[in-house]
TrEMBL record:
<dbReference type="GO" id="GO:0016740">
    <property type="term" value="F:transferase activity"/>
</dbReference>
<protein>
    <recommendedName>
        <fullName>Proline--tRNA ligase</fullName>
        <ecNumber>6.1.1.15</ecNumber>
    </recommendedName>
</protein>
<keyword id="KW-0067">ATP-binding</keyword>
<dbReference type="GO" id="GO:0004827">
    <property type="term" value="F:proline-tRNA ligase activity"/>
</dbReference>
<dbReference type="Pfam" id="PF04073">
    <property type="entry name" value="tRNA_edit"/>
</dbReference>
<dbReference type="InterPro" id="IPR006195">
    <property type="entry name" value="aa-tRNA-synth_II"/>
</dbReference>
<dbReference type="InterPro" id="IPR045864">
    <property type="entry name" value="aa-tRNA-synth_II/BPL/LPL"/>
</dbReference>
<keyword id="KW-0030">Aminoacyl-tRNA synthetase</keyword>
<keyword id="KW-0648">Protein biosynthesis</keyword>
<dbReference type="GO" id="GO:0005829">
    <property type="term" value="C:cytosol"/>
</dbReference>
<dbReference type="GO" id="GO:0005524">
    <property type="term" value="F:ATP binding"/>
</dbReference>
<comment type="similarity">
    <text>Belongs to the class-II aminoacyl-tRNA synthetase family. ProS type 1 subfamily.</text>
</comment>
<dbReference type="InterPro" id="IPR033730">
    <property type="entry name" value="ProRS_core_prok"/>
</dbReference>
<dbReference type="InterPro" id="IPR007214">
    <property type="entry name" value="YbaK/aa-tRNA-synth-assoc-dom"/>
</dbReference>
<dbReference type="InterPro" id="IPR004500">
    <property type="entry name" value="Pro-tRNA-synth_IIa_bac-type"/>
</dbReference>
<dbReference type="InterPro" id="IPR050062">
    <property type="entry name" value="Pro-tRNA_synthetase"/>
</dbReference>
<dbReference type="GO" id="GO:0006433">
    <property type="term" value="P:prolyl-tRNA aminoacylation"/>
</dbReference>
Amino acid sequence: MKQSMMLIPTLKEVPADAEIRSHQLLLRAGFIRQNASGIYSYMPLAKKVLQKVEAIIREEMDNAGASELLMPALQLAELWQESGRWYTYGPELMRMKDRHDREFALGATHEEVITSLVRDAVKSYKKLPLALYQIQTKFRDEKRPRFGLLRGREFIMKDAYSFHASSESLAEMYDKLYTAYSNVFRRCGLNFRAVIADSGAMGGKDTHEFMVLSDVGEDTIAYSDISDYAANIEMAPVIAQYKKSDEVAKELERAATENQKTIEEVSSFLNVSKQQCIKTLLFKADEKYILVLVRGDHEVNEIKLKNLLEAADVELAGAKETKQVMGCAVGSLGPIGVKEIDIIADHAVEAIVNGVCGANEEGIHYIHVNPERDFSVTQYADLRFIQEGDPTPDGQGTIQFAKGIEVGHIFKLGTRYSEAMEATYLDENGRTQPMIMGCYGIGVSRTMAAVAEQFNDENGFVWPRSLAPFDLHLIPINMKDEAQASLAEELYSMLKNDCYEVLMDDRQERPGVKFADSDLIGLPIRITVGKKASEGIVEVKARKTGELQEIHKDQLAEKIAEMMSAL
């Protein structure tokens, strides 16, 4: 492709609103342009990268036994009402009406549509298992779009769905697609981890996220320093053992703590460690209030709390609500004397001896507090976030933290959607059974952004060969020079015939501009046709290493093949 024929609007300056490296470079190198907040046009270079990501995904999905289809982005509200998600998905779902006042949603995901398709087409166990996927634009009305393609309102996604007659069949497909996803991200060159995750609004229990390690990631990964264990911080169980001290229990006392509200303030004021304090928080689980206790140096994990209570929704009570229910401010909450509200506590609380807690009275805390003597706990459970240095849940090593960008997510949905939408089949005994489902997503445009985040240097992108928009950047220094122009055209034809994708910079630009744009775009190999063109000699440079050599045109094909094989 001749560069003069492509739209590659590079920028010299970093756009003011671009916070992270991938967003900055995708804009500067002319890969994307913003149309509105969280909505982007993919320029020709970006489109080529996306096509390569999609080709890898298609190959791996096809190898796993899935077949591709394409469903509508515009979805009937009735389908979402059948599943119940029309009322629970939240404001991220973009809703609209047509001229006949019929309600629709722009597809944020396609569980409802695929379930309706399969329930109408599949009636017998003989047609199962079945796995289907699509690559399509999705729409979610993010409250705060940010980081370019990493959190947008319109994005490209591969979503797949599987249907089964048994849990064993679902587990087999889940493992196949776990492997397929690992292959996809490995072939994209990414440094990633597959982590145990929460299913969130999707439903289901068994689920893994595929996280690309990056300092700009919005998720925290808890991983073992010596084993393969990795989990989203929300899902990592705590296996730490808490030994109760043999200190003699002292008599409960009230202590004045005026204007001391936080754990830090109270522990400092009373000269005790945060580990001796009991943090008390009021939560509302569905329509029921719950007091939750954790040690002062720990934080309540709402996902663990929600799963423990098997609640549809769990949220921390606000200051006004806390005052109405408990009669005191948040910073004064405590479990002593509470009778009509269940109290659940993290395991660490059970080991506290002569601790400190709020007295449900402004400016007062209890000291020498001992669980079960001074208050009763309905249930002890693992309710806190895991911390760095905690033992790894698999018993091997200790926990470390890393930031990650979620690029893929796989779920075992079970029968949540099939039961709600009556997607059933007849088993071998002629009995009606709900189909068992799985769901599997990859953020295609997000994957490109994650690659952009990992593969760059101070001058621009350093694309891996598997995803680079072109293999080679052919740069004649001066197209007005007959020898340079002639040799460039000769090499352009030769390299294309050798099945390389070649971008030839035939623009009438200064050499400095061409080289700067070349580094910014970041193709694997640059071939410069310059002053020695009349001798048939060109300069070859590897973008990744900066290695530069002069090569005669007769040896160029061999040299390029050697360099490409090393990438």
